[in-house]
Write the structure tokens for this entry.
Amino acid sequence: MTSASNAKPAVVLLSGGLDSATSAAIAQASGYEVFALSIDYGQRHRFELESANRVAEALQVAEHKILRIDLAALGGSALTADIDVPQRRSDDEMADGIPITYVPARNTVMLSLALGYAEVLGAADIFIGVNAVDYSGYPDCRPAFIAAFEQVANLATKAGVEGALNFRIHTPLIDFSKAEIIRCGIELGVDYAITHTCYAPNNQGISCGTCDACQLRQKGFADAGIVDPIAYQDEQ
Amino acid sequence: MTSASNAKPAVVLLSGGLDSATSAAIAQASGYEVFALSIDYGQRHRFELESANRVAEALQVAEHKILRIDLAALGGSALTADIDVPQRRSDDEMADGIPITYVPARNTVMLSLALGYAEVLGAADIFIGVNAVDYSGYPDCRPAFIAAFEQVANLATKAGVEGALNFRIHTPLIDFSKAEIIRCGIELGVDYAITHTCYAPNNQGISCGTCDACQLRQKGFADAGIVDPIAYQDEQ
């Protein structure tokens, strides 16, 4: 924990990606004391969690917890099961429906755990870096889902029911384009060199540059007119 | 898996307790093929999960998955953290607010995981053995919570959003007294000898007979006019 602070505590879901690092920086800039929560949901690679550690350190958060849960045991996603991650998809292909990298109930599980952590801390505020613009087509990144979960949070908990806490799910990036997220983060001093985005990195953790996530990231930096500080396999 | 069946699949949350065993039996009797899901959320004792295994076997479910998640790392409950379980509380004390055995966001986490499993299976139906009558005062056992979560389920998922599945959270016990649950289970052939209820068993797994859960169970059997088939420490 950091030294005493009068800031209100907030739980921030931190994946190690570009969006969640920016969301954490926004929470801090808004005056919250950040308690970061990373969920190790059986990702096929560990580089994302290493990035989460680095981002938590860089932001000097009050606490960083990593909870492991084996969503891979449930199967059904290219990110947890043994299914190939799509590569070099065109904009049209990416815009067409919900991709195989969708992890069933991922954000519902992550918000549930954030809610438990928040209630134990006495924190009413939960930040999640979802984005409905360049969102890869995931249903659990939309405002309607977030609003419904906020209602669940206040009905599910002792603190919510007894009125001690009025839970709010903050989605500071939900209406931002990827370029706007990056510009906002740069203004707040986020170091994007320590974030990890790629769905299919090599053994050294170098991003492929061709999966949907890499393509969205690269387009975001290009649109923002900022150089992406990470390396890609296809540049090497 | 059991042999081919035309029954619709349902995910049933199975704790190993009396309520969830009854809920699973009701799902089967209603014509569903049961896919049981037990969550090992860092309970202080393992006897509950052993009971879940025995119940899954007795019911010959299609599949039984156990997912581990360390809610104890978040703290805040006598059931996961190093806090004493209350003993020999009177009816008035038990009726007075939400007890220390409340696990933050427990049912939200469990339903989220059941939702992920259901989506992977293509199952629209999820059973949870919550009970709002003899419910120990937990907020996430109430109909308002269940209705809100059902809404989340249909907004959070690819299958829900695309209309392939219309998720329903079934709570067959929600309006039953403990005695009614037991009578219903006995009619369906549930063997309550293999269920585990106690919050504070001894090293051999023998129930204390004095925690809230044991007291509610004993009162339920007494009200139903049925002999509780398990042993208690205070009888020995």
